[in-house]
Amino acid sequence: MALALCLQVLCSLGGWLSLYVSFCRLNKHRSYEWSCRLVTFTHGILSIGLSAYIGFIDGPWPFTHPGSPNTPLQVHVLCLTLGYFIFDLGWCVYFQSEGPLMLAHHTLSILGIIMALVLGESGTEVNAVLFGSEITNPLLQMRWFLRETGHYHGFTGDVVDFLFVALFTGVRIGVGARLLFCEMVSPKPKWFVKVGGVAMYAVSWCFMFSIWRFAWRKSVKKYHAWRSRRSEERQLKSNGHLKTH
């Protein structure tokens, strides 16, 4: 069983590495980060779809059955994601592209997935955490791509930012709090699984503070720009009115 899990993770890691190399060759005029973020975007879309299917259709429901034995589909998805996180953590460390908070997030994710695979249980709630963590990831990558291509400062960038902040606050913080509560009050999950859940939720709050600060600064900037435009429009109207007299 352990050998089969290791092979699945190695195959996943090899797959993500191969995809990264392919993106690098297809985008030779772009940076390495461009290709890495394409891999991240691909993983985000794939993991959202798979984890949503597990949580909402295949089951079991994470809010009522935390600590349940892992299903075969959960194991496959966790192995797929573990390979990705190992790839991305290695890339971030090698290129020194991320700060301590993101590295801590990736490390906790890797440890949490390994823990669920070794125990053979709690894949239900780990899969739910995966869904909540990844649901905002495509938007984050879209924001970066918009910046790189010079299309961020406009309506599209505002929509992406709004959806990112709304989803992060509603799903990762709001729904995440409910999931953590269900995890803590249930007698099934191991105590160290609960500790891991608390740690992941604490990391989410650290991200949330940074996101709220960004949202506040952007809102204030947008408000001042709107006030400035209104003032200029009033001046133009006033000057035009004076000229007609």
Automatic annotation (TrEMBL):
Superkingdom as given in the UniProt entry: Eukaryota
Coiled-coil segments: none
Pfam families (alphabetical): TRAM_LAG1_CLN8 (PF03798)
Keyword Lyase: no
PROSITE patterns named in the record: TLC
TLC domain residues: 29-204
Primary localisation category: membrane
Membrane-traversing stretches: 38-56, 77-96, 108-131, 152-171, 191-212
Keyword tags: Membrane, Transmembrane, Transmembrane helix
Membrane topology annotation: Multi-pass membrane protein
GO (cellular component) term, any one: membrane
Cell location: Membrane
Protein known as: TLC domain containing 5
